[in-house]
Amino acid sequence: MNKNEEGFTFMEVLVAIAIISIIGLSLLWGIASISDSVTRARENARLALSLLKADEYIRERTAEIRIPYWERNITFESSGSSASIPWYQGDKNAYLRFFTENNTVYAETEFNGETAKLALLTGIENIEIRILENKNGAPAGLEIIYMLKGKEYRTVSPFASIPIAGKTA
Asked: Total domain count for the chain?
């Protein structure tokens, strides 16, 4: 080879290829990392949306519990993982129920002889459902605490109306 010829040596070409390969691999790793982050963000957004929808549904239905202020003999069925609440939409014989079955939280309404059941959340690891009482011992609302994907979430919702005083049966 003549020293006056212009061009790159074999070593210079190999170094350039190595540098370009390293830059390309770094870009690929960055794109894969961004893709994983976007996937996790989508999953978190879906979870947040399902939690918000469940919370909204629980609050809307619980707000339809209208216990007359004069009522003193109210019976609730509550076991920790389920609750059955009378006076749904102001009817003593209508019920709002929350319960778990196969790691899924369900809401069920019974009104005018018709029953409607809806799955609110799936993948629940643990749940506690409690009837809240005011300082006089009258039922005042509902609290649902559930564990989902290792985190604790809580919904607290008051009834639309409550008895003035008295303990429940």
From this structure: 1
- Sign of the CA dihedral running 31, 36, 37, 43: positive
Predicted model pTM: 0.77
Residue 46, domain member (yes or no): yes
Containing structural domain, residue 58: 7-169
Residue 98 parent element (H or E): strand 91-101
Per DSSP, helices labelled H in the chain are 10-62
Closest CA to 132 of 162, 95, 89: 162
Q: Which residue bears the tokens 């976007």?
A: 38
- pLDDT tens digits along 81-134: 899 999 999 898 999 999 999 999 999 999 998 999 999 999 889 999 999 888
Identity of the residue numbered 106: Y
